[in-house]
Amino acid sequence: MNSRNPLVIGAVVLGIVFIAIAIMYWTVPAKSLPGPDMFGHSSGDSSPHYKHGIASFLVGLACFAFAWFQSGPKKGAKSAARSEP
After folding, report:
1. What is the pLDDT of residues 27-48, one digit of tens each?
2. What gap in Å lies between CA 33 and CA 30, rounded to an integer?
3. How many Cα atoms occupy the beta-carbon half-sphere of 4 within 13 Å?
4. Measured at the alpha carbon of residue 63, what is the angle toward residues 60 and 68, in degrees to the nearest 5?
């Protein structure tokens, strides 16, 4: 593949961001997350939000899967390669 599709690059970047957010949800208590009531946490809660982390992780994996399928060979490329001598 000579040129990279901007959608693939964007999906990979978003996948990395969502995986990082998932790790943040799993490791940082809700009261220490940045911003007031940001990312769905309450200000006095001291436990990590595991469900939010799982959801963010799955969205990150979906972004990676999208990038994987978009970066594969096109349908016509395989048949064109066979017809060449």
Report:
1. 888 777 665 555 555 556 667 7
2. 5
3. 9
4. 130
Length of the chain: 85
pTM of the shown model: 0.71
Burial profile 66-78: b = 16 or more Cβ within 10 angstroms, e = fewer: bbeeeeeeeeeee
**Amino acid type, 75:** K
Q: Are 6 and 66 in contact (CB under 8 A)?
A: no
Q: Residue 36, by phi and psi: left (phi above 0), alpha (psi -120 to 50) or beta?
A: beta
When computed from its CA atoms, the radius of gyration of the chain, rounded to whole angstroms, is 19
